[in-house]
Amino acid sequence: MKKILLALLFISNISFAQQTALSLEEAVQMAKDKSIAAKQASTQKETDFWRFKSFQADFKPQLSLSGSLPSFTRSFIQVLQPDGTVAFQSVSNNNSTLTLALSQSIAKTGGTIFIQKQLQRFDDFERNSTLYNGVPVAFGLSQPLFRYNQMKWDKQIEPLKYSESQQVFLESLEKVSLNVSDYYFDLLIAQVNLQIAEKNRSNNDTLYKIASKRLELGKISENDILQLRLSVLNAQKDLASAKQQAEVAMLQLKAYIGYREANKFDLAIPFQLKNVEIDAQKAIQAALGSRSDAIAFRRRILEAERDLNKAKAENGLNANLNVAFGLSNRGTKPLDIYKNAQDREFVEIQFTLPIMDWGRSKARTETAKANLQLTQQSVEQDKLTFEQQIYTQVTLFEMLQKQVKLTAETDEIATKRYQIAQDRYILADLSITDLGIALQEKDRAKRDYIVALRDYWRAYYTLRYYTLYDFELNESLNLRK
After folding, report:
1. Are 149 and 109 in contact (CB under 8 A)?
2. How far apart are the first and last CA of the chain?
3. pTM for the structure as a whole
4. All structural domains of the chain
5. Residues 6+ apart with CB under 8 A from 390
6. Rounded distance between C-alpha atoms, residue 78 and residue 93, angstroms
7. Is pLDDT of 60 > 90?
8. What's the rounded Cα separation, in Å, for the pair 399 and 390?
9. DSSP string, 186-238
10. 9 pLDDT above the threshold of 80
């Protein structure tokens, strides 16, 4: 009987030191390299890059070849006769055209200048004749007058959009780190709970066996043995539940970080905290210099100003100037168009002037003004919220650093207290109930410590996500792009 008691009393504490190679930082790096979320962020970054390249190409010279080759027609057409009657005449011809043009957009004015060559061939199959018409060279300008200049605003806004997308990519990677931290500690807590459940089930089994021996000796009541039997059953249910939760948490972490192997793994508890001191103002300045939100503040104001400019420009006189100068000629051979070419001029001004629109123009302008004011107010409020969010996160991080230290000390004290309770039980100076209470307090302290670590690391990665700043290395994450 004494040997059985000693076997119970020397039940060892749960060992939380993991024999595993997978640490939190390794899991984070694995997710950044292999996870679907990281791959999606990388793909989106590439898409944004090529979209910006497409925008830049719009402001560079464009060389194009256009035309219709062939353009064959065989039909009857209506022909008005000198006496006013109509005759339907058979036609069979080919009217082909080729145009080679080099154009350049002018961002400051919104216009386009161009130089082009054109060759037209007309084949009349009814009369078996061929004629050529062409423009050896022509220079032209198409210039909007008193109109909204889309290119001018795009040149200011599109680079901001691209910079914003670059920061969104970095934020996406930090968001991956934050999510990994959540999944990692979900599994870590589940594994700790599983170890506790296994040990509690073992302890209750041992207690029940001892109680059964004591019942035979008449030293305990039947009510006590039933209570212990109930504890055994509850411990078995807790163990089954803990196994299921650990399985689910394992699958979630493996799926997110891109771990494709079938084998399971344990996790290392990240005891070592980051030795950093974070100044709230420095964190705010880092965020304002790096976060996509800070770039979006400027972009939103510019877009609202653009909309107001567009509303004003479209309310008055809208005109378009088209000018072209060059040479042109005709002949029976292609080279004839280059012989004694004649001057070719074209000047056109198209315009629209609203005379009466029943206040529609004014309404559009006033709406755009109100939207600009609303955007300015919204951005100002968002800036305050943005700064407050970072300040709150910094203070939370500082508090959680202290919280981890307190829970670590509590865990150490609870472990020592349980050891003392074991020693007192050996000396028959403590009841089984008090020993169970000490065990529960030790387990709860261990869980609280792991939860405090989870909250600490989540706050750390959240702060990196908010600021795009590595406070440990004291450098912006932009430098690593």
Report:
1. yes
2. 69
3. 0.81
4. 2-57+152-310+361-480 (1.20.1600.10), 62-106+111-148+317-353 (no CATH)
5. 280, 283, 284, 287, 463, 466, 467
6. 16
7. yes
8. 14
9. HHHHHHHHHHHHHHHHHHHHHHHHHHHHHHHTT-S-HHHHHHHHHHHHHHHHH
10. no
Q: Where are the alpha helices (DSSP H) in 317-431?
A: 360-426
Question: Left if phi > 0, otherwise alpha if psi is -120 to 50, otherwise beta: which for 382?
Answer: alpha
Residues contacting residue 237 through CB under 8 Å, at least 6 positions apart? none
Give tens-digit pLDDT for 314-328.
Answer: 888 889 999 999 998
pLDDT of 8 reads 37
- DSSP conformation letters of 21-76: S--HHHHHHHHHHH-HHHHHHHHHHHHHHHHHHHHHHTTS-EEEEEEES--EEEEE
Span 391-411, pLDDT tens digits: 999 999 999 999 999 998 998
**Closest to 334 measured CA to CA, from 80, 34, 130, 105:** 130
% pLDDT > 70, the chain:
91
> What single letter denotes the amino acid at residue 233?
L
Q: What residues contact 189, with CB distance under 8 A and at least 6 apart?
A: 249, 447, 450, 451, 454
Beta bridge partners of 100: 65, 117
> Which single residue is written with the structure tokens 């590439």?
46
